[in-house]
Amino acid sequence: MKLIRNISFPFMPVYYAVTSLRNSLYDLGLKKSTSYNFPIICVGNLSVGGTGKTPMIEYLIGLLKKDYKVATLSRGYKRKTKGFQLANKFSTVESIGDEPFQFYNKFKSEILVAVDADRTHGINQLRELDNAPDVVLLDDAFQHRKVKAGMNILLTTYNNPYFLDYVLPTGNLREPRKGAKRADIIVVTKCPINLSDEEKSKFLISIAPESFQHVFFSSINYSNYIISSENKISLDTVTNFTLVTGIANANPLVEFLNEKRLQFEHLNFKDHHEFTEEDILALEKKELIITTEKDFMRLKQYDSLKNKLFYLPITVTINNEQDINKLIKDFITS
């Protein structure tokens, strides 16, 4: 992969120029962005995958669902359907995508979950519902400039911050670093639990936030329990298992399990992996499988894995949580 990135270096200026031009056209008003008179919060990143958008969306759902009618709107990556889809009891990973399916399974009686590659059309469809949402959370839409969200939350990881990265195809950035200036809130994700104030200060210097921008640091919290469709057991009682991951970066999870000195083999697939019949036959031979919640959504449909398939829940902790919560709620009520 590194060799391919190095070979592709001459193409980086072309990608940089194209994405910069596109953003400039939106900034100058030459390409249309649609604004709305109700709260829309966009959660996204500059890089390709793996920054923790799903846990952040779930954090916002948990913060807002008691006081507001909340809807999530995603494009539904790798789904088999087209156009606008509103999740219901008949929805599957194939019809709405794995992450929206996860949102629906976890919060189905409390929020609306929708997918549409055209976010403008999706928002309009949601607003036409009889039970229209008060707040729309746009999942992975920072580059979807046709919608002008009222609040933009940009995520970047502690180990691979955008300010040390390059645009595609040499690096992982979808657009130049200067795109971060569109964010209202920047969250540095997947930080060490005990990140020092000195390290935070170094990050702030590198980010160089604008006067209107707020920067926060968050960490992943792994549960002490693993959950199946029917059971919940302590992770400490598990002796040997197979870890199955189909996410952009499994390293934090692997490090957590290693720190607990658990014995496991790791089957690491690409992000949003679509499990084949051959994959399932191989997994049927395993005694115990632990996976991520997103991959669990893809695998739980197989009855042959039902009694051996568990996922490890995660949540995020944000430093100065009261401050970020206030910013978000103040935006909604403004």
Automatic annotation (TrEMBL):
<dbReference type="GO" id="GO:0005886">
    <property type="term" value="C:plasma membrane"/>
</dbReference>
<feature type="binding site">
    <location>
        <begin position="47"/>
        <end position="54"/>
    </location>
    <ligand>
        <name>ATP</name>
    </ligand>
</feature>
<keyword id="KW-0418">Kinase</keyword>
<dbReference type="GO" id="GO:0009029">
    <property type="term" value="F:lipid-A 4'-kinase activity"/>
</dbReference>
<protein>
    <recommendedName>
        <fullName>Tetraacyldisaccharide 4'-kinase</fullName>
        <ecNumber>2.7.1.130</ecNumber>
    </recommendedName>
</protein>
<dbReference type="GO" id="GO:0009245">
    <property type="term" value="P:lipid A biosynthetic process"/>
</dbReference>
<keyword id="KW-0808">Transferase</keyword>
<dbReference type="InterPro" id="IPR003758">
    <property type="entry name" value="LpxK"/>
</dbReference>
<keyword id="KW-0441">Lipid A biosynthesis</keyword>
<keyword id="KW-0443">Lipid metabolism</keyword>
<comment type="function">
    <text>Transfers the gamma-phosphate of ATP to the 4'-position of a tetraacyldisaccharide 1-phosphate intermediate (termed DS-1-P) to form tetraacyldisaccharide 1,4'-bis-phosphate (lipid IVA).</text>
</comment>
<comment type="similarity">
    <text>Belongs to the LpxK family.</text>
</comment>
<keyword id="KW-0444">Lipid biosynthesis</keyword>
<dbReference type="Pfam" id="PF02606">
    <property type="entry name" value="LpxK"/>
</dbReference>
<comment type="pathway">
    <text>Glycolipid biosynthesis; lipid IV(A) biosynthesis; lipid IV(A) from (3R)-3-hydroxytetradecanoyl-[acyl-carrier-protein] and UDP-N-acetyl-alpha-D-glucosamine: step 6/6.</text>
</comment>
<dbReference type="GO" id="GO:0005524">
    <property type="term" value="F:ATP binding"/>
</dbReference>
<dbReference type="InterPro" id="IPR027417">
    <property type="entry name" value="P-loop_NTPase"/>
</dbReference>
<keyword id="KW-0067">ATP-binding</keyword>
<keyword id="KW-0547">Nucleotide-binding</keyword>
